[in-house]
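Q: what sequence does this backbone want?
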């Protein structure tokens, strides 16, 4: 048996040789990439990113300079409109000054001078809303100087244009009761006045704070006491 056994030394692996096995089901793919291409791409991206802020800043500066030029050229207000606005401001300042002078004379008890200034505001600046407040002062001054019928007519007119002004309604209530002998109408006006401001039933308030003339204060007292 030993003589018939074939030698098997040629079947044993040779330690000096490398055994290579090939997987036929799963072939081996070897991908060779060039190292120069990624580096070139990265460099291009870096250059692009570095150039962006400069481009954006340039655009912003261009836009700002363009806006500044446009703003300096375009002016929506014409010279005529600017002159008209200046004229209105001047007239308003004059009307306010006259109104304040009338109130100063009213506070001093000089109702003749107060009537003069209030009347000037009403006649020369009737296109301004503040002339309605001058009409209130004018009505109070007219009542004190003795022209009570015109004073009441002025109060009635202003009570409509300045509806919601407690002073006008309170003064009209006092005048209607004392001079027109109309207690019902006076009560209606007093109700409106006291709902808006209850202080107008205080004689000290209308005398010392609102500077009503003595004759109108007396008329209000007569109405409150029903005398």
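A:
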């Amino acid at each position: 048996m030993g003589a018939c056994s074939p030698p098997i030394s040629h079947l044993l692996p040779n330690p000096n040789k490398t055994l290579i096995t090939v997987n036929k089901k799963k072939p081996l793919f070897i991908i060779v990439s060039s190292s120069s291409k990624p580096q070139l791409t990265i460099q291009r991206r870096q250059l692009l990113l570095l150039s962006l802020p400069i481009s954006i800043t340039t655009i912003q500066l261009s836009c700002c300079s363009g806006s500044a030029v446009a703003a300096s050229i375009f002016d929506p207000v014409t010279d005529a409109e600017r002159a008209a606005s200046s004229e209105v401001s001047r007239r308003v300042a004059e009307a306010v000054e006259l109104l304040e002078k009338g109130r100063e004379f009213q506070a001093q008890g000089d109702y003749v001078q107060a009537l003069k200034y209030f009347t000037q505001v009403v006649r020369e600046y009737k296109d301004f809303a503040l002339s309605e407040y001058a009409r209130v002062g004018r009505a109070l001054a007219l009542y004190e100087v003795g022209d009570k019928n015109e004073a009441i007519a002025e109060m009635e007119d202003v009570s409509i244009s300045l509806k919601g002004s407690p002073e006008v309604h309170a003064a009209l209530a006092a005048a209607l009761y004392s001079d027109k002998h109309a207690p019902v109408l006076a009560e209606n006006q007093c109700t409106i006045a006291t709902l808006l401001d209850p202080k107008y039933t205080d004689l000290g308030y209308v005398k010392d704070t609102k500077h009503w003339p003595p004759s109108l204060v007396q008329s209000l007292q007569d109405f409150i006491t029903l005398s």
